[in-house]
Design brief:
Layout lengths: L1 H22 L9 H28 L8 H28 L7 H6 L6 H17 L2 H4 L5 H22 L7 H25 L1
Helix pairs in contact: 1-2, 2-3, 2-7, 2-8, 5-7, 7-8
Length: 198
């Protein structure tokens, strides 16, 4: 089960990196904050997607959740770093380039006004994912299930956020991978919650 979980995560990460490198034409001289920050978003979503898939497979095969404890701990650390650095890197670079502080900096100078709603989805998701990091302390509370539901909404929001803003998923082979992630995520979520009730 550990090998399967790591294999799913590694494959998702490799696909994200290849899609990102393809987007910059495999030219490392083009790497700067503006070109690098999207990769952090792809990595975060890919690993969170892998968490849901691994969780569903663990339940399907009847494996104790302690088996994947170290896997979730390690990959969750990478996720939290990436979800914080993804917007931070953009905001810091925009500020350094004289465009001021967020949200005005990216709404007026980076994202078309017609796509402001997509940046809002990203912000809402970031808040949800940060709240989810409190699960070690509060997951035994009766209200925690609402944070679980919000986490799923956050995944959907990020999926849409990337479709609207992410150059890597606008066209080409990775767009099909992205839709595959969306479909398999919904299946995994359905199975996890069905098995919890069963």
């Amino acid at each position: 089960m550990k090998r399967l979980a790591w294999g799913i995560s590694d494959t998702a990460l490799i696909l994200a990196v290849v899609a990102w490198f393809s987007g910059i034409g495999w030219d490392v001289s083009k790497i700067d904050s503006y070109s690098f920050f999207p990769l952090l978003g792809l990595v975060a979503f890919s690993l969170m997607w892998a968490h849901y898939i691994a969780g569903a497979l663990r339940r399907f095969y009847g494996v104790d959740k302690a088996v994947l404890k170290n896997y979730f701990r390690a990959t969750s650390l990478i996720v939290i770093i990436c979800i914080l650095m993804h917007p931070a890197l953009l905001m810091i670079q925009l500020y350094a380039d004289g465009f001021g502080l967020p949200p005005q900096s990216y709404l007026q100078n980076y994202v078309a006004s017609s796509l402001a709603w997509a940046t809002s989805l990203g912000t809402i998701s970031l808040i949800i994912f940060l709240l989810f990091e409190l699960h070690r302390k509060f997951s035994d509370r009766s209200w925690w299930k609402y944070i679980d539901y919000a986490q799923i909404a956050g995944m959907v929001f990020i999926f849409i956020h990337a479709l609207a803003l992410g150059g890597e998923v606008q066209s080409g082979w990775y767009r099909y991978v992205w839709f595959g992630y969306g479909v398999s995520l919904l299946i995994a979520v359905y199975y996890i919650y069905k098995s919890k009730k069963g």
